[in-house]
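Structure tokens please, single chain.
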Amino acid sequence: MKRFVIVSKDDEQSKQLKEKVNLRLIELSYENNEENPDLVVTIGGDGTFLRAIHQYIDQLDTIKFVGIHTGTLGFFSSYDGHECEAFIQDLIDSKLEYKKFPLLDICVKSKSGNEHYYALNEMRVENVIRTQLIRVSINNEFMETFRGTGLCISSQAGSTAYNRSLGGAILHEGLNLLQLTEITGIHHHAYRSLGSPLIVDGNTQITLESDDFCEAILCYDQLSVKLKKDSVINCMFSEKTVHCVGRPNTSYIKRLKSLF
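Here you go.
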């Protein structure tokens, strides 16, 4: 890894730290290369980390990401803002621990064609204008008809993000599983759906269909697109993976405790 770029949050603390890390890497004969980096350093929080991944979504095979935390939440970050020199030393000593995370592959089919989107944390179908009806199939087998605001499909990495705020389960690091969680479901004598988070094997495909997805939005990580009326959404794990490096022997439980 000799070509780097720094993606930072736009606050004064992060910008100052960006300058410091930039100078230290150049001192180590690293080349600042925004177009073709093999190391992406993010400075900020998890939002900055996700932004960097989507910025380089077509180059993931050749890039490793490392996060330095200066934001409000840094679950993907191995180093706090004051630990810049610890990161540099681990880099020099080749002590950075390697991890990889699979991305969700979200295929949206409609009469006008197919579109693919990718997410590290989760994808959500939401409709805040009216009650959204969604037919849910697991591996092409119909499971239920959901009515409510929407549904969230998250990865293990995303189980601590939006999914957690919905009351979904937190999945321990290393579990290659998908989780389907309801967003404000309607439950009474006329309409009923599972009502609980559903955790499925990582080889599973989840399909979401509706007679009318007008006014519904597909959110994937921090990005979103409007759905067409006839959209059919297939979600499963992609072959794309995010390659991360960070502080060695970082405890998952310690990072989990930082959430509360």
